[in-house]
Structure formats: C-alpha cells, structure tokens
Input
Amino acid sequence: MDEGIANLIVQALCAGAFVTVKVTAGALIVALAIGMVSASVAALTSNRLVQVAIRVYVELLRNVPSLTFLFLLYFGLASLGVRLSSMAAAILGLGMIGGAVTVDIFRSGFLSVPVGQKEAAASIGLSPLLSFRLIVLPQGLKLAMPSVGNYAIGLIKDTSLVAAIAAPEVMFNARQLVNETFQTALIYGSAAVVYLVLTGLMAQSVMFIERRLETQ
Amino acid sequence: MMFLEIIADNIADWAPRLLAGLRLTLSLTAAGFSLALALSLLVEYMRSRRNIWVSSIARLYITIARGIPILVVLYLLYFALPGAGVALPAFLAGSVGLALVYAAYLAEVFRAGLGAVPTGQREAALAIGLTPRQAFQHVLLPQAIRYTIAPLVINMVSLLKDSSICALITVPELTLVSREIMSESFRPLHVFALTAMLYFGLAWPASLIARIIENRFQNGSPVTKCCQQTALPPGPKTLSQLQSLP
Output
C-alpha cells in the first residue's frame, strides 16, 4: 500500500469522524431535550390528552426504523416544500427518534425513585411541583444515567445511517473513497476502527460521569 | 384529503411491490434472528468457560460487535469479502451481518437471564444431589428462560427495524422497494409514510407482547416481589390535605 492512499484514508475518515461527532452531539441534545421535557410533563400533569399524546409519539417513533424515518423526513418534507439540509435532517431525525427512547428512560428513572422520598417530601409540606423539582428529578436523573449512556453509545453507531441521506460522515466518506481507490477492505476496516474508538471514548466518559455522580 | 387520494390512486401499483418487499423484510428478520440465536448461545457458552483464552475471544467478539455500526459490518461482508474470494449474495450478506451483530446482544440477554436466577437455587439443587449439569438443565435454565423471553422479543423488534439497513447493500426489502417507488413516482411522503405504517404494524404488536410478558413475569417473581415499593396508602397525601381534614 502506498503512502498516498493511507493519507487519503486518514484525511477522509478524520473529516467524517468530525461530522459524526457533530451529528451525535446535535442529536443527543435534541433527544435529551425532548425526553426530559416530555417525561417531566408526563410525571406532573394529570391531563389524559397530554399523556396519550406523549405515549403516541413514543410508540410511533420506537416502532419505525431509523432509516425509514430519515427518508421520510429528508425526501418527504422536501416534497412539501420544506427542504432540510442533510445535516439538519440527520440531527432532527435521529434526535426525534432518540427523544422517544429517552422519554421512556427518564420516565422509568422517575418511577424508580423510592415512594418514601415522595411521601417524605409531601409530609414536610412540599407542593407536587417542588417535590418533583427538588426530590424526584435529581434522584431520577441519576438513576437514568446508565441507560442514557447506553443510548448515547448506540446513537454514535446509528449516525452511520445518515450516510444514506448524503451527510458527509465516516461511512459516506468511506464509500466515496472506495469508489475512487477500490481499497474496499482497508477503508471499511479503518471505518470500523474509527467507530470502535468513538464508542469506546463515549463509554469511558459515561463511566467517568457515573463515578462522579456516585461520589457526590 | 389529497394525501389519501394519491395513495388510493397508486395503491394498485404499489401494494404488490411493497408486499414483496415486506416478505423479504420478514425473511431477513427470521433468518437473521435464528442465526443470531444459535451464534449467541455459542458465544455465551464460550464466555462462561474457565479457559481464559476461550472466554477472552468471546468477550472481544462482544466488544467489537457492540462497538461498530451494522452498516459497517454489512459493507465489509458485501463489498470487501469478494476481494478475499468470497462473494455472498446480498440477502445472505444481510442476514449474516445482522446475525453477527445481534449475537453479541443476545449473548448479553442470556447472561443477564442466568444471572437473575438467585444463587440459592443452584446451591439447593447441588445440595439435593443433582450434578452441575442437571442443576443447569432442570433448575437454572427453566427459570432463566422466563427472564429472557421479553428481552428476546424486544431484540427481535430491533432486528426487524435494523433489517432496513440491508437496503443499503441492495437487498430489495421494504425500504429499498419504497425508495425505488419514490424515485419513479416522486411521491416520497406518501410512499415512506405507507412504509413506516407497515413497519409499525409489524413492530408495535410485538413490542406490546414483550411488555405484557415482562409485566407478567416481573409481578410473579420472588426477586421483585420482596423489593416492591409500598404504594402510598389511601388517605391524605399532603400536609395541606391533612390540615384541611375535620
């Protein structure tokens, strides 16, 4: 293998990794925002309509493939005149799907807070809202942390799908380079290593955050 | 309703093609999941061995399979393997790729299932004179299976959804078929909405069944029963309600 190709591969994959990180970060923020707000609203409201709306959102997005949803968002909206860039569609699409996942994660986190905590909060006279904000929310988030970490690691891998809507991330660049150089095994093998490094880094940082939370 | 009218106009043309794609999606899921089951049992068996080499290989396999996207595995199998002289047809590459990845997830499910059986069960089985093998077969395995059914169904739903990725290695399953229809008809919204509904129709009932199984076994198991939280007793729930009582 000559050095030129090695250089090309490193360049393409590094540029791709940068985009992958950007999509992951963007989708993670969207997903956490949707999940956090919906789970909190669901925990606080007794309005059946809101509860059902959140449930429908979760069930719909959790039972449709990410790729199909990305196509729907990218090509489908364009036919309505809403033309999203492939990066915007990638972040929005993966974020919306992730939101459905994180709603469930946060919800079960809130439910895992021992009932005694809520009883104690109520007995010292905290209102339901204050009890949620001061007692349930902090403990629930801590309990939800491991699952959020797992979701974030899965998200890195799912970003590979946005290659199909032409976002220039690792797999998209790899594919292009394969078409130019025909070094199929080498390039896709290197892409695999890039993902292993990225998911490994994410796993390490999740573990670090969890340890920090435990010592607090 | 413009939306429904357009679908109604085209349904005669689209339906047979979409159903053919759906059939392939189901075959991919069935083939991928059965292969993954077999492979995962092997991986979990290897990991539970005392031999450090055997168990390390299994561990390494799980780490790698969980760390790289399915798309990479599929590209390697379909585009790179022919370079080594092994040309797999797209369907085979797809189902093998899905199975290779899901074997790692299912191995984790089996490990968690066996781990959920209290150690006292094994000790008791050995104490009444069963051999380790008999203890595994008659005491541990039947209990472990109850803990694994729901996660297995959930993983099958995920595999069904991930089978859509095989569209990118030219397996003409549901997602690829709908892409083709889209590029002919220029009706992406309608076609993909229809496709999403087909996936939903398959995945949602399975998800519901998994949830029912999960709740059922959870309520019955001694582990969760003793740790169940006490519900708030009926009556005044906040101090203000207490004070408002006569």
The domain at 3-215 of chain A is CATH 1.10.3720.10 (MetI-like fold). The longest helix of chain A spans residues 3-44. Chain A has a mean pLDDT of 92.
